[in-house]
Amino acid sequence: MPLVKTYSDDGAQCSVTFVFNNAPNARSVTLVAEFNSWERESLSMHRVDEHWELTVDLDAGEAYQYRYLVNGTDWFNDDDPDDYMAHPYGGENSVVQT
User: Could you report the per-residue pLDDT of 39-70, keeping only the tens digit for each?
Assistant: First the structure.
């Protein structure tokens, strides 16, 4: 499912709903990103039916890298991000553009 974005009336903020579908049986999924200094525990996603989601308010006009962390051990990229960007460990991160 694509990222869902809603902009503030003045265009300065963008509410982004991140949806992760690849772990219906997971115990936990967290959103780990540049905008939270890659903190592994601060953005816990919520199970909704067979997927996980979380809405975050971000500054508009920016690009942020992010990944999903499942059960505290397994890293996943988004299936439908705005873009991908190489990270220093030889893989890619998902990118959301606000």
Answer: 999 999 999 988 999 999 999 999 999 999 99
Give the pTM.
0.92
Residue 49 backbone class (left: φ over 0; alpha: ψ -120 to 50; beta: rest):
left
C-alpha torsion sign, points 43, 47, 51, 54: negative
Instruction: Give the pLDDT score at 27.
Output: 94
- The distance of Cα 62 from the centroid of its chain, to the nearest Å, equals 14
C-alpha Rg value of the chain to the nearest Å: 13
By three-state DSSP, how is residue 35 classified? helix
Angular region, 76: left φ>0, alpha ψ -120 to 50, beta rest? beta
Looking at 1.10.1060.10, 3.40.50.11590, 1.10.3720.10, 2.60.40.10, the CATH number of the domain 4-97 comes to 2.60.40.10
